[in-house]
Amino acid sequence: MVKKVRKTLLPGSVQLHGIMGKALTKTVENRLKKVNYRELVDVFRNRSENDGKWRGEFWGKIVRSTILAWKDTNDPELLKIIETTVDDLLSTQTDDGCISTYPEEKQLQGWDLWGRKYVLAALLRYYEMVKQDDRILQACCRMTDHLKKQLGNTPITDYGLHCALPSSSILTHLVKLYRYTGNESAKALIDCILKNGTSYLHNIYIAAAQGVPPSEIATSKAYEMTGCFEGLCEYLKDQPDELYRKSVLRYYEMVRDHEIFVTGTGGLKDNNGEFWYRGAERQTWQKGIGSLGETCVTVAWLHYCNSILEMTGDSCVADEMEKSFYNALLGAMHPDGHGWMHRNPTPLSGAAARATVREQISGFGGHDCCLAQGPEGIAMMPEFSFKSCDSGLVVNGYEPADCAFTTPGNQMAKLTISGSYPCSGEVKLQLQLEQTERFALKLRIPAWSKNTAVRLGSEMLTPDSGAYFILDREWNNGDEVSISFDMSIRTVKDPGGSDLLAYCSGPLVLAEDSRLADSTGAGTFHICKEVNGITLCDYASAGNAFSPENTLKVWQKSE
Questions:
Q1: Distances from the Cα of 558 to the Cα of 452, 494, 530, 552, angstroms
Q2: Pairing with 45, which of 94, 307, 377, 540 sits 20 to 30 Å away (CA)?
Q3: Coil, strand or helix: which one is 185?
Q4: Each residue's pLDDT tens digit, 36-48
Q5: Please, are residues 44 and 56 in contact by the beta-carbon 8 Å criterion?
């Protein structure tokens, strides 16, 4: 059955004014508006990618980020950029329906299907968020029909690198296309990917359901594997299946428990930090683990967590996302938003420096996969912070913000959050609405906040940590809710069993910064805390001079 696009908050409904809101403004102005979008399309126009590279991913990756950033900001300049580049990309589609950067004789090899996946991702996001233009769905259907014809009787899971994980991660977008159009080629490709479990090596979905560690699934390529499981989550929205549900939940739990670092990212083993390799247990190692934490993995993890959050409604999943947003993701962005890190600081238990990406493919505009991916993560924050639901509004984020939303009674309302979260735990929520109405505010109470106090009028309430605190009542214009979160310093033990410790305050991981020794970094940190005689700052600010001399360290020797 063909289904309509799911309703979300309107473009520009959420305005963040805190740390992440400022990061979004910087990444829009200094990165997304500076991209040469025509250059990204030229490689499709010329089909000149004859060296097996991945230039084809950049248009889709960057444009989907730009679309989400436009939805966040309602910026007319971004909208013009989006409409122009989408029209330009569509002009490269040949009569047979193909949109590819590879010449015909090399199509289906290397990263070709990976690039086509990102074209579908951006076009379908345009359809969902910008304009429900029939041209978009027609172009996507023609692309998919062409792909199915090209494959013939050979499974899509036989093509591409890393045991077909990159190629099969197209599943998410095939599911959406079939949802919106009923396209039979999309359905056939979905069935093939599910039947073969995305890989010619083994069925990764069955492996996860059976508890095979992610580090032992297929080639253990973290980013692409997670994309395949995200596709299965998307499929489950339309076709419930107990085995598949078990698989995606088990994968989430295994990655969370055995692969994600204290900073909220993962990936290690090679020089770019791109593989699952029991990273949680090895994050304090200083040798034999490669580099730590590809930024592409951070964003893939955020997307996957968001899928699990939608599936389960478990607030602890939102806690994981918050950790990634404020630490690994924000820390990977250059302070002015123009650049990003590929690998994250390595090691975490010794002096490590941040460095922005270098040109990944010579002669292609300085692009890097993580430079393309980082803005997507930042642009996810407004939608994470507030989610509409049938009974009212879900509040996941607490940095200063304004959220305009429609109540269950169909009146426009506004929720304003003030304070200085996550640097402080004192938060105030205020409602503005014309008429008294009963609806629910679902407030995320993080698991780390062991002692949380909520004041509603003259009433003091004590919510449980690690759950949503639901205030279902009649609301009046001007009603206020005050929340005091427990921001006391928490000690995190090394999952690998060493005597090293990490420290956190609220969602923020704390780290040493070499500038703290002589005050040369004064004013550059969001917070500073004294722990066991050592001054620590927030991880995202640590090392943010992006110079070899400015080092940071997360894991400390126990006293």
A1: 28, 11, 15, 17
A2: 377
A3: helix
A4: 999 999 999 999 9
A5: yes
In a domain, 211, yes or no: no
| SS3 (DSSP) at 353 | strand
Residues contacting residue 315 through CB under 8 Å, at least 6 positions apart: 396, 444, 445, 446, 447, 466, 467, 468
Q: Residue 6 — very low, low, confident or very high, per pLDDT cuts 50/70/90?
A: low
pTM: 0.97
Distance of alpha carbon 9 from alpha carbon 544, whole angstroms? 33
Quote the domain boundaries for residue 52: 1-201
The total number of structural domains that make up the chain: 3
The answer to whether residue 322 sits within a structural domain is no
Q: Please tell me the distance from the alpha carbon of residue 177 to that of residue 185, in angstroms, as a whole number.
A: 10
Does 280 reside within a domain? no
pLDDT one-digit tens code per residue, 495-543: 999 999 999 999 999 999 999 987 666 668 999 999 999 999 999 999 9
Is 129 contained in some domain?
yes
Q: How far apart are CA 14 and CA 398, in angstroms?
A: 12
Q: How many helices (H) and strands (E) does the chain have?
A: 17, 21
pLDDT tier at 358 (50, 70, 90 boundaries)?
confident
CA gap 542, 345 in Å, rounded: 10
Provide the residue type at 270 as one letter. D
Q: How far apart, in whole angstroms, are the C-alpha atoms of residue 512 and residue 425?
A: 22
Tell me the one-letter amino acid at 237.
K
- 466 SS3 class: coil
Domain boundary among 183, 201, 219: 201
Distances in Å between the Cα of 222 and the Cα atoms of 185, 209, 376 are: 28, 17, 18
**Does residue 403 contact residue 415 with C-beta atoms inside 8 Å?**
yes
271: which 2 tokens? 């020089």
Place of tokens 């290397």: 110
Cis ω on the peptide bond leading into residue 347 (within 30° of 0)?
Answer: yes
